[in-house]
Amino acid sequence: MSRAWLLRLVIAFSFAQGAVSMARPAVSYRALALGADERAVGVIAGVYALLPLFAAVPLGRRTDHGRCAPLLPVGVVLIAGGCAMSGLAGTLVAMAAWSGVMGLGHLCFVIGAQSIVARQSAPEDQDRNFGHFTIGASLGQLVGPIAAGALIDGQDMAGTSALALLVSAGVCALAVTSLWRIESLRTRTDSRTKEASRVPVHRILRTRGVPGGIFISLAVLSATDILTAYLPVVGEHRGIAPAVVGVLLSLRAGATVACRLVMTPLINWLGRTALITTTCLLAAVLCAGIALPVPVWALGAMLVVLGFCLGVGQPLSMTTVVQAAPAEARSTALALRLTGNRLGQVAAPASAGLIAGVAGTAAPFVMLGGLLFVAAGLGVRGGAERGSDGGADGGSDGGAGQGRARVPRLRRREKDHQRH
């Protein structure tokens, strides 16, 4: 089967994520120009995830029993509108509200796109396809901060940050040029004939592998999100120019792209469990290290290694959740994973704002180190659980153990079906 649909999806995601990655630091700089302190920046960053926190599961339910592709243009419209209106807003309250609209649009796009990848990928191709799909996010995160840093001038922060937000709206609109023939006819037909009953959310959350995958994704995304939102604040306190901060954020994103290009060889070499555990542990140390007053060149080197480590968690947590969840509730499981992400995006920046206000702007990165350390522990535990099910996470299985671990669940489903 041709994977041209995946290439078009990656291109569209690059534009959408590029717009968001350009807008997020621009929102922080514009908020600072309007008189916000560290706490207010944290609240605005948290509101970005607030609306998606309540919308993710209903959107996942709808996608499980319908088409995925219509969510993509809806997401583009909401992201572009949120970016543009954030640039025109003159108060912190209005900026927070439009930041929430931007977050809702990003959620719509991501749920639709991830569900398409899950449906149209064979089980043995999911690690590779999710890895390639997330390259779109990394490319956007690579270009977006550089573009924001190039446009924003410290001498006229209010005006230039508003310009950056308007430009990001235009960048997002370009995503619609690739949104054609992404969802196959076979996938549309399968979605109409799917079993109509809904798998309860508590059953999905109790499925082995799903909670761990959700928390690992939450920890990794929280690290990425706080880096994007708070590195500008750290830069302001340490005298680092916005353009340099943009380059630093893009170095992190570039390393993430490199990681995802070599995802399959890494899994074959180390195995999924060892790869997740090692990268989370190293990322925990590096996040805590950002709190140190190191030179800019050392900060850049740390962010490169950190970006490579953070590149592992998102695609592998997608595969883990998709393969562990019941087949008829995969979009809902992905939506629950995104709900966990958004919960982290609400709680982590808000907590970071409080910590920064009390202990200084570098303290939130120590908090991230602790979060990633817990994620590493869950990665080890998840591997042990798969091994106890007869699906040892060997160095070359590439996730095959997950398929073996799924056999008992399939048998339980058959028994449940016979009872009804």
TrEMBL record:
Pfam families: MFS_1
Region (Disordered): 384-420
tRNA-binding is among the record's keywords: no
Annotated keywords: Membrane, Transmembrane, Transmembrane helix
Family annotation (Gene3D superfamilies): MFS general substrate transporter like domains (1.20.1250.20)
Keyword Glycosyltransferase: no
UniProt main location, coarse: membrane
Localization of this protein: Cell membrane
Residues spanning the membrane: 39-59, 71-89, 95-118, 130-152, 158-182, 213-233, 239-263, 275-308, 352-378
Domain Major facilitator superfamily (MFS) profile: from-to ranges: 1-387
Comp. bias intervals (Gly residues): 389-402
Annotated membrane topology: Multi-pass membrane protein
PANTHER family named among the record's database cross-references: INTEGRAL MEMBRANE TRANSPORT PROTEIN, INTEGRAL MEMBRANE TRANSPORT PROTEIN-RELATED
Protein name: MFS transporter
Organism of this sequence: Streptomyces endophyticus
